[in-house]
Specification:
The chain is of the alpha/beta class and 362 residues long. Helices cover 43% and strands 11% of the residues.
């Protein structure tokens, strides 16, 4: 890539014709290129007139001069215009990587028992250790974790339909009940029998604490936080977990509440807090992508969809953000629309904007 000074973002980079990058402005694309935003890889390429090469947004090389930059929608368009791929960032590999991940996801979904990493890598045409990195980067969890989440989701659906828990366990693809119980506690937040009985047997402690953005509900099982939300009370919590035993938090729980409330005033601070939340494999992937957004930065719903390997699932990403059970701790407030406007937020745009302001560097 040709070296040069930093470019500015004024003026169109796609020529005088129609916009070449759907749902993405020139300024947004160039800002992503300047930031080497890996989440934007695959959404467009940068063609460099002086060298006749094209690069993906995260290319590690120095940035070219502004007058040499041309935005192109994809690698095929760049090649058709006479450009060749950068040998450093290998932009053509992005589509190949995502296609490989898609094949692996389909293989996992069609298998009764989770395929081994070596099998997935062979089907994708990669070395196992390399494919593990690609899959984790695209989806947010490893192939093994994705398979466990998918199987736990099958278990939840089977528990809703089968008369006997043992039948549901085997219908979901488990070879032994012990593995099913372990996965259920990890991904459903409770045992299969508790799930079947609407949460009966689960004990949830809670408190409603004052925060600078209004009352904050904090609730947790013995395993970890299961709900953080604004403007909800005990009645709302009981509606979510109708058959759980819900009790007021004790003194040790108060210490956890204090840590959670501190996030409201300092949402940029990283906190390693225990969690206990249930979600589908897709939701878990979205929530993992949200947690990967650095404080002080934002992503679009389309960027999150691309980051988890589901570029067409923008609306579903929005739904997963809305279903996020852990406000602030899983920072769905850092996701905006593609045009830069705030979009939705379950607890009101005023709170979303306040959280974003508090994350800005001083």
């Amino acid at each position: 890539m040709a070296a040069g000074p930093d470019f500015d973002y004024s003026g169109p980079m796609t020529g005088s014709g129609p916009r070449l990058l759907p749902n993405l402005t020139d300024a947004q694309a160039l800002a992503a290129f300047d930031a080497r935003d890996r989440a934007m890889d695959g959404r467009f390429v940068i063609a460099v007139r002086s060298t006749r090469i094209y690069c993906k947004p995260s290319c590690p090389a120095r940035r070219p001069r502004r007058e040499n930059i041309l935005l192109m929608p994809d690698a095929a368009a760049a090649r058709a215009a006479g450009y060749r791929p950068c040998l450093r960032c290998r932009p053509d590999d992005v589509a190949r990587d995502r296609a490989a991940v898609a094949r692996a996801i389909a293989l996992i979904a069609d298998s009764e028992t989770p395929p081994r990493l070596a099998e997935l890598a062979q089907a994708a045409g990669y070395a196992p250790h390399h494919f593990q990195r690609i899959f984790t980067r695209e989806i947010g969890v490893s192939p093994a974790a994705y398979a466990r989440q998918l199987r736990a989701g099958r278990l939840a659906r089977s528990l809703d339909g089968e008369a006997r828990i043992t039948d549901a366990i085997y219908d979901a693809g488990y070879e032994a009940p012990s593995r099913a119980y372990a996965d259920a506690r990890a991904h459903l937040g409770m045992s299969p029998s508790a799930w079947r009985n609407g949460g009966a047997g689960a004990v949830i402690r809670f408190a409603v604490a004052d925060s600078s953005l209004g009352p904050l509900l904090v609730a947790a099982t013995d395993k970890g936080l299961c709900r953080i939300s604004f403007a909800e009370d005990e009645a709302a919590l009981r509606a979510r977990f109708p058959k759980a035993t819900i009790i007021a938090g004790d003194a040790p729980f108060a210490a956890l509440v204090t840590q959670v409330v501190a996030l409201i005033d300092d949402p940029a601070r990283t906190r390693d807090l225990p969690v206990d939340v249930a979600g589908t494999a897709f939701q878990q992937a979205v929530w993992a992508a949200l947690r990967a957004i650095p404080a002080g930065e934002t992503r679009s719903y389309a960027q999150i969809a691309a980051a988890i390997g589901k570029p067409g699932a923008v609306r579903a990403v929005g739904s997963a953000c809305g279903d996020n059970p852990l406000a602030v701790l899983t920072p769905c407030h850092r996701v905006l629309r593609s045009d830069g406007t705030p979009g939705g937020y379950a607890y009101g745009l005023a709170r979303k904007q306040a959280l974003l302001r508090r994350e800005k560097p001083a």
